[in-house]
Amino acid sequence: MLEKLGKKALVAPLAMAIVLCCVLSVAVGPMLRAEPHNVPFAIVNLDKGATTITGSANVGQTLTDKLLNGESSLGNIGSSSDESDESDSSTSSMADAISWTQLKSKEELSAAFDANELYGGIVIPSNFTSQQASSAVGLGKAPEITVYLNKGKSPQLASSLQTTIQNAMLKAGVACTVEIVNDADVGGGSMSSSMAVQMMVMPLFIMTMIGSILLSMLFWKKDLTGLKRKSPTLAAIVLLVLVAAFSAAIAGLAQFVDTVAGGMTLSTQELFLFLWLACACCMLCFVSLCCLSFPLGALVAVCTFALGMSCAMLTPEMLPQVWADWVYPWAPQAHIGNGVRSIVYLGQAPGNTDVYPLLAFGAVGLAALIAATLAACLKTRKTSLTEKQDKQKNAPRQNARA
Predict the structure, then answer these.
(1) Which pTM does this prediction carry?
(2) What is the pLDDT of residue 170?
(3) pLDDT in tens, 22-51
(4) Contact, 216 vs 235, CB < 8 A?
(5) 3-state class of 269 per DSSP?
(6) Which positions ≥6 away from 120 have C-beta within 8 Å?
(7) Burial per residue of 204-232, b for 16 or more beta-carbon CB atoms within 10 angstroms, e otherwise
(8) Buried-exposed string 327-346: b where 16+ CB fall within 10 A, e elsewhere
(9) DSSP count for the chain of H helices, then E strands
(10) What is the dihedral of CA 258, 263, 265, 271, to 10 degrees?
């Protein structure tokens, strides 16, 4: 075998290594450059203000205005001088990372969390100014604002922003308590909460990609069963059945990685059905494109893996702008990750915005399989006609010899 390949046998491993490095660089690169930006956060100011020795004041409104204006320094909110420190890195990073919007009530904030629209929010209590004034003269404790972090939106971003906000408020002289919303006890180790989605989507997609290429190569391109030569239509139907069976097995194995091997406590039935749907749609797309044109299908599968792998764990607000604008909207890993988070953290079925893109992959696959089947039927009919004509030409010769 090596003698037949000649010099190619020496070049092939080097080429494979270069391709693998390129694929891994594209897959891992966005994760290494992840930086939060324009993260949707809300602020609810319930502070009614108070009259102090210096006149009427509303410290909560002052804090709200500074956050809404995106000021890089909050200064010392509790002091009357309102001095600022432009070199404060914590408030600068918070201003760069968070995009604030003001809501009127805690009920409105809760509704936004239920709809999974926000990454977090701040609530300033109604007695914030009066407590601040009392604390300044030693008549009470310093008031606290409540910081809500939505873990169901992104566990990684919630942990990152918790430290950033706490440091910024500490520099501003404002105490805060942190409450986590849409949390879930997934079990496992200390990294399970932040890595659960990635460790489920990654093996799912790798197995889907490899399984799709092998299935199309052995069953359709090589036609090991001979079914394609006899009846391309029947072969396509059997291929659909195999995709359904293989995708169910892959979904089960991906869930096994987290639940059994990782020791996590995850919803089994609903999560399995969603993973099965996602895997089946992606596998149908890759298998069918490989059947239509093997190099095209393999290229699409590998490129989808490389470009979309970072989108499973990172949200658009953490991805580089190119990935956020051009890759995240269509990458199946992004919608699989969102669907898994909806089931695990929100206790809800994945929304249409995540299901429809996956179904679109399945629709592309179905169209490609139909096209591949028609092409195979035409080729089979042409071969049959050629064989029939050859028999008719050879018939007089055989009769003459007889």
Answers:
(1) 0.85
(2) 81
(3) 888 888 888 888 888 889 999 999 988 887
(4) no
(5) helix
(6) 39, 41, 42, 147, 148, 149, 150, 158, 161, 165
(7) bbebbbebbbebbbebbeeeeeebbeeeb
(8) bbeebbbbbbbbbbbbbbbb
(9) 15, 7
(10) 20
